[in-house]
Amino acid sequence: MTEYFLNTSGLKPRQQLDYWVDAVCKTYTGMTVHKAGKQSANSGFSAKMAVRDLGHISISSACAERSCVGRTRANISSSSEDLFLLYLQYRGQSQLRQASQDIHLHRGDLALCDGTRPSQLNLVPDFSQQHEMIVVKIPTPRLIALAPGAHALAGIKMDGNTGVSAILSNLIINAWKHQDELNGRLKEQIADNLLDFIALSLNEHMPQHLPGSSIQAGHLLQVKQFINNRLTDPELSIVMISAANAITPRYLHKLFKSEPFTVSQYIINRRLEECEKALRSRQYNNFSITDIAHMWGFKDAAHFGHTFKKKFVLSPGEYRKSFSA
Question: Which of 14, 26, 257, 263 holds its CA 20 to 30 A away from the CA of 2?
């Protein structure tokens, strides 16, 4: 990801819409943009965008006149990037359609858009003719690791005026406003904290929105939350997970059958991700690599080193040095 700013105002009117479409596709991966009403594309299109890195995610601000932004099946099939977009309505209003949901967003409201499914976002400027959306672009594996049921929340409105979503809304706005003041290490830490809070807000909405037929999906979510809460326990096992969730080991393995990892692989992968965070965090500078490995449930330092290098290419020591340089 790169950081950049663009504005259509310096272009000829007939060039502005095409320029904006290219910018939207570059930033959010494969989308269509249509002007509202019957105005010709040659009549111009007023829009601007700023995109900034925040660790392993990006935050952008997109301002545009009344228009419709969509992601079609053709866009999806030609895209190689697997991502979620978290929309935060900052100015004006929007109407989002995805996964049989049709919601209206007002200032502060949030909505998760699943990049693997078609969507349509209608932009409605406010009285000053301004529309601005702050967008958090999140790689799917990062979010699913923290909020396993995220796909089930596509197109669901999260009220930015109440509860956890209100806090999240303000966090995103402040992260956007002040990230220029942060160095690379702090950006990584803020990104991790922001992802944790996004997952918290999504998980808060999960129970009331899970489809009735998704009993198995609900069980999988429950199991993953149990695992994530006990990653530090070196005795975490198939037997413990099954007993705590009142299911059989056989059913537990069945829940993970359509997942990219087995149960054991999921546990190891999550532990590796937490160790990776610690190795690049100044907070753990006084902890040895072995301490960090044991902290996150690894019993054997040699086994940890081997699995870490397999996932992150560098050894734990080399990885830590790359962030202290």
Answer: 14
Whole-angstrom Cα distance, residue 206 to residue 148?
10
| 213 pLDDT tier (thresholds 50, 70, 90) | very low
Q: Model-level pTM? A: 0.68
Which amino acid would we find at residue 303? H
Residues in Cβ contact with 237 at an 8 Å cutoff, skipping those fewer than 6 apart = none
Determine the Cα–Cα distance for residues 257 and 87; give it in Å rounded to an integer.
32
Q: What is the 3-state secondary structure of the chain?
A: CCCEEEEHHHCCHHHHHHHHHHHHHHHHCCCEEEECCCCCHHHCCCEEEEEEEECCEEEEEEEECCEEEEECHHHHHCCCCCEEEEEEEEECEEEEEECCEEEEECCCCEEEEECCCCEEEEEECCCCCCCEEEEEEEEHHHHHHHCCCHHHHCCCEECCCCHHHHHHHHHHHHHHHHHHHCCHHHHHHHHHHHHHHHHHHHHHHHHHHCCCCCHHHHHHHHHHHHHHHCCCCCCCCHHHHHHHCCCCHHHHHHHCCCCCCCHHHHHHHHHHHHHHHHHCCHHHCCCCHHHHHHHCCCCCHHHHHHHHHHHHCCCHHHHHHHHHC
Report the b/e string of 211-247 with b at 16+ CB within 10 A.
Answer: eeeeeebbbbbbbbbebbeebeeeebeeeebbeebeb
Pick the CATH number of 215-324 from 3.30.70.270, 1.10.10.60, 3.10.20.30, 1.10.290.10: 1.10.10.60
pLDDT tens readout for residues 221-237: 778 888 988 999 999 99
* Cα–chain center distance at 37: 33
